[in-house]
């Protein structure tokens, strides 16, 4: 497919075909050496192309809104009985096949452009165009169209303007197919070919056409044969042209061209052409480097000849890629995407071919596990396997799964454990890189192996060996330690932890905090304990001491440790909370605020900030009881009025507590440090803490008052109801006594016995208890209940609350007895 750019400017008139054929005669002054021969060739070409000169080109707009050429032929207008109208008819030469048959409809808009193009639309999104070799022939056809539609031939548009998507600069399309005629591959035409390729790189349409012209192996073969001729003749100018031609062909970014250029027959000649860069005073010796200085090492002999060729080709193509970098600014950023893809596909093919060879990988691992293997062989095996793992990143997921399953079965992890414990720095570094590839691919597989490793006979666990490598890094910038710390973080990252029957998240975390965390914290504990032990003779004064807080190397290592601890606090709060409380970890971390290195101070503050961010009241009580805000406040005061990251971090810590209104911490800070912090007025954080504190204090007082009122109201109301019940019972008893007439004296004893029996029955049923909170109330329905305190079995509200004034009032004021009204 070919694409065209739309343009608001009117298209330029297409040059006629004869002038294009004469272009090679005027471009290059070097053609004077073979002028007679070239003139004869052009004359022959004119005779052969005389018929082509009269042919028109037919284009159509495809579904991608790009113009494609339909063919070339003679154009005529003729009445077609089948279509019942005049039609545009185009037939190819010399076979006379019909290319186009289009009925001229009265309402179809036609447009003539620059005298040589006629454009119209057959249907929606189906544009058509004819490019004529000259204006005269175009005008003849245009008159026929205007006659059918009843329009004046002097106009260039028969109806309204065409749709914008069809208003394409078709003159560029036609020009591409006429101008981009590749000259013969001869010595005298090299400069013209180089110029043609350079100009085509700026247009996607020209690039597509050029790829079709160059994608001929015969042309590339002749071109590279000319390279040897130019080298023999020491024709520097032609060699410079060849450099531009080959580089331009690579920058066309087409896989079909790369397949030919990078074949075994031509790749070294391509490298040779790239040696003669016109921008360099002297040519580079790329071929000499690839053939003489580069040595291909076979740690394990490779028998497969195809595999060997693929390995050599990949290395050389990668070398060519490096030659073409950096990317020139006039090209897109992905202008070498086809070259990069070619390399990646080759790497994937190499890995697959090695994986299919069972003996090869088995032999490699047998030598890796063999403790009698010398260090040089180990080193070469690891370098090979490191590159093998790098190549495997290009595989599809299914193939990569199968590969890493095979590697695990062959014992890659036990071999790495053995190699990472060796003293050779290069061996340890290569083993670490391979371990990184495995962790990035399948962290769950590594976690499973780490847990299983505790049952091995080795005295040191694999994960502890990795931690040990972090602390043994001698690089001043701790490059390797930083890399390994990233691996630990990846293993502890809950986002890539999947629950399975073999390795669950909780199981790995329990294992890590039990068997590894103390080793991980060893430098931190050692440094802080040294500081505490030598507090009077400050360790920080001796910066050469490895346990010194001001030692840059130590500070960097502690910063890495604190970063991972902060990560664990955020993502594994349960385990870290227990560890912090058991080991009193925050106390040791805050000692690092005494270091002169601000980045270490910030790491310590970040750790405390993560703890407070959990909003766990148990941790808050731990912070309060340990008085851990004191070193933070001291660091703020020591920093003074300087506005820096340390100041911002401390203020943010207090501001977070204020905004979240963590009541226990707010109260602790205000009560203990507000007198010191109230002078800081450039932020309102500390005044805000004071306001929060006062609001909470007032709220608590109000709650206390409300609680007392509620309790008093409930107790008083309950007691009043009990008294009223007792009074009512007493009145009822009095009414009964007065309502009954006294019996005769003779019957007095019988009457007394009867009443006594009734009283006994009442006493059996009357005692009942009512509970309210922790208090119990007892009431009686007997006549004696009216006396209140006189009855020892009766408890009233007055005996529950000891109000002396109330007792006096009750003694002085006896409720008046109510006289019952009896019916006659």
UniProtKB/TrEMBL annotation:
Region called Disordered, residue ranges: 727-824
InterPro entries: ARM-like (IPR011989), ARM-type_fold (IPR016024), EVH1_PP4R3 (IPR055236), P4R3-like_central_dom (IPR006887), PH-like_dom_sf (IPR011993), PP4R3-like (IPR051137)
SUPFAM superfamilies assigned to the protein according to its UniProt record, in alphabetical order: ARM repeat (SSF48371), PH domain-like (SSF50729)
GO molecular function: protein phosphatase activator activity
Bias-annotated ranges (Low complexity): 779-790
Gene Ontology cellular-component terms listed: nucleoplasm; protein phosphatase 4 complex
Pfam families xrefs: EVH1_PP4R3 (PF22972), PP4R3 (PF04802)
Protein's UniProt name: Serine/threonine-protein phosphatase 4 regulatory subunit 3-like isoform X1
Phylogenetic placement of the source organism: Eukaryota, Metazoa, Chordata, Craniata, Vertebrata
Chain's gene name: LOC110123013
